[in-house]
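Researcher: We're teaching a course module on how sequence relates to structure. For the next exercise, students receive a sequence and then see the predicted structure as C-alpha cells, so they can try to spot secondary structure elements on their own. Here is the exercise chain.
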Amino acid sequence: MKTKSFLTMAAAAAMAVALGAGGAIAAGNAWNQGGGEQDEALHLEPDLENGLDVYEVCAACHLPEGWGLPDGTFPQLAGQHRTVLIKQLADIRALNRDNPTMYPFALPKSIGGAQSISDVAGYIAKLPMNPEPGVGPGTDLALGEKLYKENCVRCHGENGEGMPDKYFPRIQGQHYKYLVRQFEWIRDGKRRNANPDMVKQIAGFSDKDMVAVMDYVSRQKPPKELVAPSADWENPDFK
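Model: And here is the predicted structure for the students to work with:
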C-alpha cells in the first residue's frame, strides 16, 4: 500500500509538536485503574460518523486504513478490540502511558471528550485489517510457538485474538517490529501501563526468545471477515 505524502508530512509535524512538548511524560504507574474517561467511554454508544471525523487526526500516522507501518513506527489499529482502544487512549490522556508523539493529538482540545473516545474506538475497531502485516525473520518459529503456548495463550488466546472483556489486545496481524518493541519495553519495565502479570511472565525471556515468540505471533492470521480483500485496499471514507 502506498504511503501518501501528506500523511508523512503530518506525521513529521506530529513529532515536532511532541518534541516541543518536552519528551516523555511522567505520571503514576497502573495497569488498569478504570474509572474516569475509560469507564465513561466504555458505556457510551459510539457515533461512527463522528468517529470518522475524529480519526482524521489519527490517520496522519496510522494511515486512513488504520494499518500503521511495517517498520513498527506506528502499530496497526484496524480491527483492534474497542475496549482495548478505549483503555489505551484513556491511559495516554491520563498520563498513564508514555507516548509523547501521540499525546498532543489525543487531548480533549484536539479530539473531544469521552464521547469522542468511544466514537473513534468504534470506528477503528470496524476497519478491515492489513492482510500483509510485517512479519519476522522466520528462523525459529518452533521455539516461538512453544513459548507462546506455554506463556501467552491464557491472556492472548490460541491465535493472538485477545480478550476484549479483560482489555487483552488482539496481537494477531500486528506488525512484527512493533510487537518486538512493545515486548521489550514491557519486559524491561519501560511501559508503565503494562499488565504486571505479563511483566512477571516474560521477565526471563532472552532476546532470542523475544524474537522467536513475536515472529510466531506476527504470523497468526485474524479471521477472514476481519481482513481487507487485498493489500491494495484503500479506505473509501478518505476518498
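Model: If you want an answer key for the exercise: The chain has two domains: 5-131+228-238, 141-224. The mean pLDDT is 89.
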